[in-house]
Design goal:
Structural class: alpha+beta
Strand order of the largest sheet: 11-10-12-14-15-9-13
Helix content: 25-40%
Number of helices: 18
Number of domains: 3
């Protein structure tokens, strides 16, 4: 029950402002693709912001500051319609209205009411073609406003942008105490980018250089990465399929700071390296492919900007099972480069992924993301001793979050804060990481890092013992090929029915003599022997099989041999070698040459 004394709506009106149509920025395009993939239930990525008001704030001054904020930042009065050709655009309105809900709380219930208002505003997906990308509620009690609740579309802001808006809103609120309303109505030109101007910059020569470095980084990753961070047999899922777990811990924040100082790495790397070690234990792998959420604020103008810069950059985190400390150091080196290469056109990534899928014969399952939110003006806190950190663990809280029945990711670790208090959320696919194991992951972060500080280092055996994380299994006969774990039997089953395939067998070979041949000791390759009931070529088989890849334990064969008929014992490769061959070849193309 919400203790709401009254609610009324005020409408802020705007007219005579600058505006116009522009292309989406890179960050907006990245978020747009996520929204389309999650639709219609895509409110999960709406962004929340709570501003606690000073005691001298009045309702009129709060509305004046809101009015000035919307005038000043074009993105706050921008819609995102879709053209006839299906292309989204950003449309900054020169005039319009912003409804603001004014809520009166009963004494002692301000926080409770603000929480409820935030949930109400957050839960509804934005109608981007006709709605401005912000919703506002002001919670008052005892005759004065206490909190302003904002909910934004992620197309408009990211976590850093929220910090910029908070600072600017409070500045405007202070100004409104001395300036006239007329002066407030004339907004100051912000020092950061306006969204349409940023989109225009991204078509310039300097931006093209950024995009080239971004694309080259992605290409290196796509050429070598495993097809998934979870190359294992899935277990039965839970309900909901994607559970969520949250952690609040002062002890973890202190442990991260202390270990970062000791290892001379960034705090984010401590979290990345440890989480990667946990995933490596769960999947029994030596490297973990991650997508790292990138802040992309590289200049003073970027840092002063409100719009969303949110994108991801890939990182292949190498694991050292004998040393968690060395794994964290490796995560630091790898992630630093990735964070510098996170800004570019998402359409370029889509093109590279499509080419790589054809060239490598795997679908890269980009479903494991770590988002460590950058915290502006982070002051260096004192480093605590191990006993002092252990004492803080009594206040640690692990909570159940609202799960989801549909999601695009298998693993999403979101560190919302890591400075004075660690606030972390984990959502995961319960077929690979069930709710119980997800709790072990979050609890284990604190436990393992304190133990590392105490012991100096840990091997993965000790990490597994401390956390209780157990490895999942792979099908018998799985092989490592081109950095990817593959189940040949799954590939065989996938072949049946493709281009009229009636019988198929897939063998693993280390040095197959075809097309110039590989040298001895070459990595494992897949050779498929196929019988079809209609004419087919290796290229046709490969092209059709690509569309059946599931991003987990599957890969198209490196070589196809089409035979007139199958042997009596199809499990015998020598017998296949005695069959009449109709055609053979790789079916693959050189992804880089475009041949």
């Amino acid at each position: 029950m919400i203790d709401l004394a009254s609610r009324e709506r005020s409408v802020l009106e705007f007219a005579g402002l600058g505006g116009g149509v522009g292309e989406l920025t890179w960050g907006q395009r990245f978020v747009w693709d996520i929204l389309q993939a999650l639709a219609p239930v895509n409110h999960y990525i709406n962004v929340r912001l709570r501003v606690h008001l000073p005691t001298d704030a009045s309702g009129e001054r709060v509305l004046d500051a809101l009015r000035a904020l919307v005038r000043e930042h074009e993105i706050l009065r921008t819609r995102f319609p879709v053209d006839e050709d299906g292309e989204p655009r950003q449309q900054c309105d020169r005039a319009g209205e912003l409804p603001v809900d004014l809520c009166q709380a009963e004494p002692g219930t301000v926080r409770k009411l603000a929480d409820a208002e935030e949930e109400r505003l957050w839960r509804e997906p934005f109608q981007h073609d006709r709605e401005w990308p912000l919703r506002v509620s002001v919670v008052a009690a005892g005759g004065r406003p206490r909190q302003v609740v904002f909910v934004f579309s992620h197309l408009a802001v990211d976590a850093w942008g929220c910090g910029v808006l908070r600072t600017r809103f409070l500045d405007l609120l202070r100004t409104s105490g001395t300036a006239t309303t007329a002066a407030l109505a004339t907004a100051t030109e912000p020092s950061g980018w306006q969204s349409r101007a940023r989109a225009e910059f991204e078509r310039s020569a300097p931006a093209r250089e950024l995009n080239q470095r971004f694309a080259a980084h992605w290409q290196r990753f796509l050429d070598t990465a495993p097809q998934t961070a979870f190359p294992v047999s899935p277990e039965a899922g839970e309900t909901p399929l994607f559970p969520g777990v949250g952690l609040h811990s002062v002890a973890l924040a202190a442990a991260v700071r202390a270990l970062a100082v000791r290892l001379r790495v960034g705090p984010a790397a401590v979290l990345l390296g440890t989480a990667s070690a946990f995933l490596g234990i769960r999947t029994d792998t030596g490297a973990v492919p991650l997508l790292l959420a990138t802040g992309n604020r590289f200049s003073a103008s970027d840092a002063a900007s409100v719009g969303t810069y949110y994108q991801v950059a890939p990182a292949l985190i190498g694991l050292d099972a004998g040393s968690l400390a060395d794994t964290i150091r490796a995560a630091d080196r790898t992630s630093k480069l990735s964070y510098l290469r996170g800004q570019g056109d998402p359409r370029e990534v889509a093109r590279l992924v499509a080419e790589t899928t054809v060239g490598r014969g795997v679908t890269i399952d980009m479903a494991t993301t770590v988002n460590v939110v950058p915290e502006p003006d982070a002051a260096a806190a004192a480093t605590l001793s191990v006993p002092e950190i252990r004492e803080l663990t009594g206040a640690t809280r692990i909570s159940e979050l609202e799960g989801r029945d549909s999601e695009q990711l298998k693993f999403y670790l979101h560190a919302k804060a890591l400075r004075s208090r660690a606030i972390i959320e984990l959502f995961c696919d319960s077929r690979y990481l069930d709710r119980s194991t997800a709790r072990k992951v979050l609890a284990g972060l604190e436990q393992v890092l304190i133990e590392v500080l105490d012991a100096g280092d840990l091997d993965f055996g000790r990490v597994a013992e401390l956390t209780g994380i157990r490895p999942l299994t792979r099908p018998e006969g799985s092989v490592l090929s081109d950095g990817c774990w593959v189940d040949p039997e799954a590939v065989r089953r996938m072949l049946i029915g493709v281009c009229g395939t009636t019988q198929a067998q897939v063998f693993v070979t280390e040095a197959e003599a075809h097309a110039g041949a590989e040298a001895e000791g070459a990595p494992a390759r897949l050779v498929a022997y196929v019988v079809t009931d209609q004419p087919a070529t290796p290229e046709q088989l490969h092209d059709a099989l690509i569309r059946r890849l599931d991003g987990n334990l599957t890969m198209t064969p490196h070589w196809y041999v089409l035979c007139r008929q199958a042997p009596a014992r199809p499990e015998s490769r020598p017998e296949w070698l005695r069959q009449a061959v109709v055609a053979q070849g790789s079916g693959r193309i050189d992804a880089h040459s475009g041949a």
